[in-house]
Amino acid sequence: MEQTGRGSFRSRYIGDKAFYNRMLAVTVPVLIQNVITNFVSLLDNVMVGRIGTEPMSGVAIVNQLLFVFNLCIFGGLAGAGIFTAQFYGSGDQEGVRHSFRVKLWVGAVSTAVFIGLFLAAGDSLIALFLHEGEEALDLAATLDFGRAYLLVMLPGLPLFALSQIYSSTLRECGETVLPMKAGLIAVAVNLLGNYLLIYGKLGLPALGVVGAAWATVLSRLVEAAIVMVWTHRNSKKHPFIRGAYRSLRVPGPLVRRVAVMGTPLLLNELLWSSGMTVLTQCYSIRGLEVVSAQNISSTVSHLFFCAFFAMGSAVSILVGQLLGAGKLDKAVDEARKLTAFCVALCVVVGGIMALVAQWIPELYNTTPLVKRLAGRLLLVTAAMMPVNGYTSTCYFTLRSGGKTIITFLFDSGFIWVLCIPVAWVLAYHTAVPILPMVIVLQSLDLVKCVLGFFLVRSRKWVNNIVS
Question: Which candidate, 296, 380, 301, places its Cα nearest to that of 57?
Fold first, then answer.
C-alpha cells in the first residue's frame, strides 16, 4: 500500500520527460529574458543609486507609477491573449489575427490615457510619496529628479505597448525564442546607454537620472523594432500578421467576448498595480528612507521573482492550448504538476535570495539605515517566495480557462478588500515600525493560498472558450 501511495503522488505531481520538455521549451526562454532584464534593471538601479539617495528615490517613485501602466498593458493584452492561445491551439489563424487587432486597440487607448494622466498630474502623484523620516533627506530635490525622469520616459510608453503586443502574440503562438532575443538585445542597449549617459562616458554629457530615462527609451525602441520587423518578415510561419493592418476592424461578437473576459483582467491589473502603489504610499509615511529601502528590496526581489513569472507564462500557454484543443483532463493534470514544480522551485530560489539579502544593499551609495532596512525586507520576501509562487500559478490557472471575474476577485479584490485597509490602519493610525508592518501584510497572502486552493480544485476554470 505504501508503494502505491508513493506512485499516486508521483503520477499526480511529477510529470514525465515529455512534460518537462514542453514546460522548459516555454519557460526557459521567458526565464532567461526575465532574468537578464531584471538583472540589468538591478544594475540600472545600482547605477542611479550610486548618484545618491534622492535621485534613487525620485526614480523609484516614478517607476512605481509606471508600474501601473505596465501592468495595465499586460492586463489589457491578457484578455485577448486567452483567445490567441486557444485560437492557435485550434488552428484558427484568422482568429489569431482578430485577437491581435484587439491588442492594438487596447494598447493605443491605454497609452493615450496614461500619457495624459502623467502630463496633467505627474508632480502631484510623485508628491504623495514624499514624507520626512528619521534622516534629513531633501524632498524637493527628490521631486525634481522624479519629474525630470518621468518626462523623458513618456515617449517610451507607446514603444513598450507595441513590443508587448507583438511579443505576447508570438509567445501565445509558440514562438518564445525571438521575444527572448529581442529582450536580451534591448537590455544590452539599456545597460550600455545607462553607463554612457548617466556618467557621461566617451565624451557624452553626464545626464544622471535623465540619462537613465533616455537609455530606457532607446532600449524599448530597439526591442519594438526587432519583434515587429521579424514578425512581418516571417509571415509564412506566422500567417496571422498577413493583412493584420489592412483593416483594424474586429468582428463584433469577438469584441464582446474579449470584453467580457478581458475587462476583468484589465481592471484586475489596473487595480492590483494601483493597489500595490497604494501599499507603497502607505509604507512611505514612515519616511523617504523607507522608499529608498523598498526600491532596493523590490528591484532585487524582481530578479528572483522571475522563477514564478516564467512558470505563470507556462501555465497560461500550455494549459490554455490544451483547453483550446479540448484536452480538458490533461489540462487539469498539467496545471497541477506545473504548480507543484513552481512551489518547489520557489523554495530553492527563496533560499538563494536569503543568502544574498545582506550584501546586495552594500552596492548602493546610500545611508546605513537604508541598507540595513533593505536587507531585512529582502529576508521577509525570501521567506514568502513559495507562497507567492503558489498564488501566482493559481491565478494563471484560473485565467487560462477564461474565468476572469474569479481571477479579478482573487487578485484585486483580495488586495483592496483586505490588504489595503490593514495597511491604511497600520500606517495612519498606529506607530508600528515599517518591518513589522511589511511582515503583517505579506503574511496575509497565506489567506490567498487557501482561496486559490479551493478555486482551482473546483475546476470551474476548465473551459474551452473558442469552440
Answer: 296
Show the cell assigned to 424: 491604511
What cell was used for 313?
A: 507564462
Which residue type is seen at 136? A
- 414 neighbors 448 (Cβ within 8 angstroms): yes
CA gap 379, 365 in Å, rounded = 21
pLDDT in tens, 31-86: 887 787 677 777 777 888 888 888 888 888 898 889 889 888 988 888 888 888 88
Closest CA to 362 of 352, 371, 353: 371
Inter-residue contact 48 to 295 (CB < 8 Å): no
Domain residue extents for the chain: 15-457
DSSP 8-state assignment for residue 241? G
What DSSP line would sit under 244-312, residue for residue?
TTT-----HHHHHHHHHHHHHHHHHHHHHHHHHHHHHHHHHTT-HHHHHHHHHHHHHHHHHHHHHHHHH
Helix %, strand %, coil % for the chain, to 5? 80, 0, 20
- Rounded (10°) CA dihedral 303, 307, 308, 310: 100
Which grid cell is 145?
529628479
The answer to pTM > 0.70 is: yes
